[in-house]
Amino acid sequence: MNAACWIRSGFWLGAALALLAGCASKDTLPPAPLQVIKPQIAGRQVWQARLSDKVGFPLALVATKDRFFAADGGGTVLALDAANGHEVWHTRVGDDLSAGVGSDGRWTSVVTRRNELVTLEQGTERWRAKLGVRVVTAPLVAGERVFVVGVDRSVQAFDAQDGRLLWVMRRPGDALTLAQASVLTAYKDTLLVGQGNRLMGLDPLKGAVRWEATVALPRGTNEIERLSDLIGPSARVGSVFCVRAYQTAVGCVDAASATTTWNTSTTGTAGVAADEDKVYATDAADRVTARRRADGVSLWSNERLLNRRLTAPLVVGTAVVFGDLEGQIHFLSRSNGDILLRLPTDGSAIVGTPVLSGTTVLVATHDGGLFAFRPE
Predict the structure, then answer these.
(1) Are strands 298-302 and 314-316 parallel, antiparallel or unpaired?
(2) Cα within 13 Å of Cα(370), Cβ side
(3) Where do the DSSP E strands lie in 197-297?
(4) Is residue 367 part of a domain?
(5) By the 8 A CB rule, do 339 and 46 touch?
(6) Does any domain span residue 27?
(7) Which end of the chain is more exposed for a tag (fewer CB within 10 A), N or C?
């Protein structure tokens, strides 16, 4: 769902976080009616599974070479065989979740509403740790470590095997921050994390700052209008990471040279996708736009899905894929934006970003449905 909340944070002054406002969304605007289309590519649902509860948090599905990992709001975490949807393992962590799921295939981590980081090994809980901060971004599990970014922009690193806290990175920042999933990923031996309007490169062993690159320049006359936090997921092509800054800009950063290659002003609250040639994103009205990855020049746009609360996109073969508020999966042509195919789920909103394992696309719905598709 395209929704974002903002948080008043005094964490770095020693005060508690306080929620000051609700979410901004397009709920009051009528979604564009779906037009009849003639499928231009083949695709079908190949399996379906269910979570135990509805998904009321920023769900992040994770795919490895042969498995999907998912979690629901009630605390159920499961691993599924990507080929056929068969359950590999599932467990309940005993508390509602605020963020999840992160996995490297062996270790799988989620965050509870009590601000506990819970890490499982093949479905068995190994440890949990108090975070002391609210988290809405899925943990990153990489290099035998679990990384967590809080809504106050602090970053914590834990040993994946025993939960030992390795380091914490906190920097003074703005009083107002965004309670929406941020950027948390890796490039070679550098941890990449969103810090307000900047993408920052950290040493994953010590938490020291190696570099930072500005993606957007805040604008506006008050704190709310100047919010421009980076939003996940980011899109990687080689050493280049393209990202969204909340309601402000889309831009690309070369992590090898620690430089911003381009940015362009645009509204929007969802992450982006990219391929060798283009960056795909929606704006605040759910207009889909493809920009040239080299310099950000607009190449095409599609206005047939306005106000349908589109998810962040996923590049699959010749298509770029979005989910919407009615559980529809839209496959748009990467070359010109035409709608190639539309496939239904259970009628509830698609939650989080679609993910890919091999040729299988997995989406999750608000009502707890997991639907796997294969375009052909």
Answers:
(1) unpaired
(2) 28
(3) 198-202, 209-214, 230-237, 240-245, 249-254, 259-265, 273-274, 278-282, 288-292
(4) yes
(5) no
(6) no
(7) C
CB within 8 Å of 11: residues ≥ 6 apart: 17, 133, 150, 152, 154, 170
Per the listing, tokens 């970053």 go with 155
- Strands 155-159 and 165-169, by their bridges, are antiparallel
Is there a domain that residue 28 lies in?
A: no
Segments of the chain scoring below 70 in pLDDT: 1-27, 58, 173-176
Upper half-sphere CA count for residue 324 (Cβ side, 13 Å): 23
Task: Count the domains in the chain.
Answer: 1
pLDDT at 235: 98
- CA dist., res. 99 & res. 79, Å (int): 16
Domain containing residue 92: CATH number: 2.130.10.10
**Domain assignment present for 26:** no
**The two structure tokens encoding residue 274:** 């990219």
Strands 339-343 and 350-357: unpaired
> What does the pLDDT read at residue 171?
81
Put simply, whether the predicted model's pTM sits higher than 0.85 gets the answer yes
Instruction: Print the domain residue range for 119.
Output: 6-20+35-375
For residue range 279-320, what is the model confidence (pLDDT) as tens digits?
Answer: 999 999 999 999 999 999 999 999 999 999 999 999 999 999
For the stretch 32-55, pLDDT in tens is: 999 999 999 999 999 999 998 888
Distance CA 216, CA 249 (A): 6
- Residue 18: predicted pLDDT: 31
Site of tokens 């789920």: 345
What are the residues facing 224 on neighbouring strands? none
pLDDT at 225: 72
